[in-house]
Design goal:
The protein is an alpha+beta fold and 158 residues long. It is built from 3 helices and 9 strands, in the order βββαβββαβββα. The strands form 2 sheets. It has a 6-stranded mixed beta sheet, with helices on both faces. Strands 1-2-3 form a 3-stranded antiparallel beta sheet, with helices on one face.
Length: 158
């Protein structure tokens, strides 16, 4: 299975074929999962968050189940602070999927439940990060993904 070069540093993956399905080991879920294009982006992105931005793997989770308007949904990745409060949500798309307003609408719906301060959308090629200001009910895009230590201190300041 060949995937395109992403706009993030490559991280080696543990890949295995099992019952005719190519799978990748997800260290956050501690299990093998089907290696789809979106999963490839998720694995590369979470490795990048950990290695480049100091996000502790122990405070990151993939495929978090939530209920939105009575319907069961799954957040692609959630980053928590040490007390378990969600700090950041990431929504992934496959590299060939364009990021649109629908993508942002999806992550905002998830955030109505989790109330994280940061939202990221990525297809591995384009990444958008915004910060939510709950005091004024606004958000703004920021130019770079914050380091975990900055994200955590900014959250506690609000």
């Amino acid at each position: 299975m060949k995937f395109p070069q992403l706009n993030i540093p490559f991280s080696p993956l543990k890949i295995k074929e099992q019952d005719g399905i190519v799978k990748v080991y997800d260290p956050l879920r501690n299990k093998l999962v089907a290696l789809t294009p979106e999963e490839y982006v998720r694995q590369q992105f979470t490795a990048w968050l950990h290695s480049a931005f100091n996000y502790p793997q122990s405070l990151m989770a993939n495929e978090i189940g939530i209920t939105v308007n009575g319907m069961k949904k799954r957040c692609d990745s959630v980053v928590f602070n040490k007390d378990g409060t969600p700090l950041l949500i990431v929504e992934y798309k496959a590299p060939d999927v364009r990021i649109t307003q629908d993508t942002f609408d999806q992550i905002v719906r998830y955030n109505m439940v989790l109330k994280a301060q940061y939202l990221i959308v990525s297809n591995g090629l384009s990444h958008y990060c915004c910060v939510i200001d709950y005091s004024s009910n606004t958000y703004h895009f920021i130019p770079a993904i914050p380091d975990y230590r900055d994200l955590n201190s900014a959250f506690s300041a609000n």
